[in-house]
């Protein structure tokens, strides 16, 4: 869970400018070549035993990335398609596996490289940041409104005071006196 108090007011200029500056630094220092290496495609398979029923062998075809960058993730279609077949036990030469498909991986990385645009990357991350600010502010206002429904007018004055971390006991005793 994140702290929504940051969104109780409009964001401070210093906070926004610092975030925009960190996005710019990230893009300026971004290495596409090393980021492309986080993309891979392949297939994995594993056996699953169901006592009293048919066993199954699951096969997953995938296109994945280890990148946390949301712009890169949306450049290409990443997916996991799972299918299975029923079987009766696992043969002694059948083993679970995970194989990287070199040709598909090369094609996937090539597709990322072709679609990458530094300016679009920068604008995407800025838009994502501003959208997150708006959404979190909206979420804060909804929570604040919900909380206000449960607080009586006299108690609201009590909660508007500034309290230190250890003053919660005093707050609780004052609140309980009103009850």
Number of helices: 7
Number of domains: 2
Q: What percentage of residues falls in helices of 4 or more residues?
A: 40-55%
Order of helices and strands: HHEEHEEHHHH
Gross morphology is flat
Query: Span from first to last CA?
Result: 31 Å
Mean pLDDT: 83
Low-confidence spans = none
Q: Based on DSSP secondary structure assignment, what is the total number of beta strands? A: 4
Note the beta-strand portion: 15-25%
Backbone structural class: alpha+beta
Largest sheet: 4 strands, antiparallel
Query: What is the CA-atom radius of gyration, in angstroms?
Result: 26 Å
Strand line-up of the largest beta sheet: 3-2-1-4
Summarize the structure.
The protein is an alpha+beta fold. The protein is built from seven helices and four strands, in the order H-H-E-E-H-E-E-H-H-H-H.
Topology:
Layout: H1 13-28, H2 32-36, E1 39-48, E2 55-65, H3 70-75, E3 79-87, E4 97-100, H4 102-115, H5 118-150, H6 153-159, H7 168-178
Antiparallel strand pairs: 1-2, 1-4, 2-3
Helix pairs in contact: 1-5
Structure description:
This protein is an alpha+beta fold. It contains seven helices and four strands. It has two domains: 1-30 and 117-179, no CATH class; 35-115, no CATH class. 51% of the residues lie in helices and 19% in strands. Strands 3-2-1-4 form a four-stranded antiparallel β-sheet, covered by helices on one side. Helix 1 (13-28) packs antiparallel against helix 5 (118-150). It is flat. The model has no long low-confidence stretch (mean pLDDT 83).
């Amino acid at each position: 869970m994140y702290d929504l108090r940051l969104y109780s007011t409009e964001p401070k200029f210093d906070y926004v400018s610092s975030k925009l500056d960190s996005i710019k630094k990230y893009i300026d220092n971004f290495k596409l070549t090393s980021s492309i290496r986080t993309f891979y495609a392949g297939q994995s398979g594993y056996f699953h035993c169901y006592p009293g029923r048919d066993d199954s062998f699951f096969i997953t075809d995938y296109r994945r990335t280890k990148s946390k960058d949301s712009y890169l993730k949306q450049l290409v279609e990443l997916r996991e398609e799972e299918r299975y077949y029923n079987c009766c036990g696992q043969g002694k030469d059948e083993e679970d596996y995970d194989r990287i498909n070199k040709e598909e991986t090369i094609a996937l990385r090539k597709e990322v490289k072709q679609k990458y645009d530094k300016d679009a990357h920068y604008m995407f991350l800025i838009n994502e940041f501003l959208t997150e600010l708006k959404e979190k502010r909206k979420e804060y206002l909804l929570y604040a409104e919900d909380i206000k429904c449960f607080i009586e007018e006299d108690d609201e004055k009590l909660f508007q005071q500034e309290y230190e971390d250890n003053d919660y006991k005093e707050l609780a005793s004052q609140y309980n006196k009103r009850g």
